[in-house]
Design brief:
The chain is mainly alpha-helical. It is built from one helix and no strands.
Amino acid sequence: MSDLNRGIMKFDGADSPIAITASAIVLLGSIGVLIVWAMRSAYLLG
């Protein structure tokens, strides 16, 4: 059993490259959205 198939992601294929890529895109995308929202709220980007 892989280390990535433990903890919160307890399903078959949790350590597959597709699942890792999808979760990384979701995570980095949400961080990007929060940064853009924070900049717009602070009137730095118009």
